[in-house]
Design goal:
The protein is mainly α and 238 residues long. The protein has five helices and no strands.
Length: 238
């Protein structure tokens, strides 16, 4: 008798969950279609619609069925653990576990569908609020709206300029650090070469040519960095 009741409740729950899932799907589709139909944002996306009331009613019914099925499973567990059924205990435990798994699957599916529905409704509420703000902004004074738009654009330009300047400063700092590191390495090499030049006079002319080329490379690199910095600043303030 308990198994028959459990199967009946499971069948009812299966039908209810299918209808519940279709309701959530049609709710999302209707809201998407309404957004496409009313592009002027003059109609609110959400109100006290029949779909919302149907959702609440079906959620309550499914929760009641889940509660009844949980009670039936508890009764079957009590019967399985009672004395007098030792020969069928393994089969009964398998059957009870099967019904528990079904209950767990139905409960998980219900909570997942309900959470998805609530997330869609919350998103639509937020979108409706944003559209209302946009509509109130559009209905304001044209001069004030134009002035505000110009201020916003100018603010955005200033932010872009600040960002470009910060990037330029970061590049300059990184270049400075690299140049300092290279200067230290070159000084070390130069000191070693000077020592060698003092020991071997024949190498002195080679050292002088290397020094001249190093100075030339430093001047070229400094000129390139300066020109790049000036171009970046001109582009940022343009």
């Amino acid at each position: 008798d308990l198994r028959k009741q459990a199967r009946q409740l499971e069948n009812e729950l299966d039908l209810k969950l299918v209808s519940f899932s279709k309701l959530c799907t049609s709710y999302s589709s209707s809201r998407d279609g309404r957004r496409d139909r009313y592009s002027s944002d003059t109609t609110p996306l959400l109100n006290g619609s029949s779909q919302d009331r149907m959702f609440e009613t079906m959620a309550v019914e499914i929760e009641q069925l889940l509660g009844k099925l949980t009670g039936i499973n508890d009764k079957m567990a009590e019967y399985t653990n009672s004395a007098g059924v030792p020969s069928l205990n393994a089969a009964l435990m398998h059957t009870l576990q099967r019904h528990r798994d079904i209950l767990q699957d139905y409960t998980h599916e219900f909570h997942k569908t309900k959470a998805n529905f609530l997330a869609i409704r919350e998103r639509e509420n937020l979108l409706g609020s944003v559209r209302k703000d946009i509509e109130s902004y559009k209905s304001g004074s044209g001069v004030n709206n134009r002035r505000t738009e110009l201020f916003l654009k100018e603010h955005e330009h200033l932010r872009n300029s600040d960002r470009l300047i910060e990037e330029t400063i970061s590049i300059a700092m990184a270049t400075k650090e690299n140049m300092t590191s290279q200067r230290g390495m070159l000084k070390s090499i130069q000191s070693k070469m000077n020592t060698l030049a003092n020991r071997f006079p024949a190498v002195n002319s080679l050292i002088q040519r290397i020094n001249l080329r190093k100075r030339r490379d430093s001047l070229i690199l400094g000129s390139v960095i300066g020109v790049c910095t000036i171009l970046l600043l001109l582009y940022a303030f343009h």
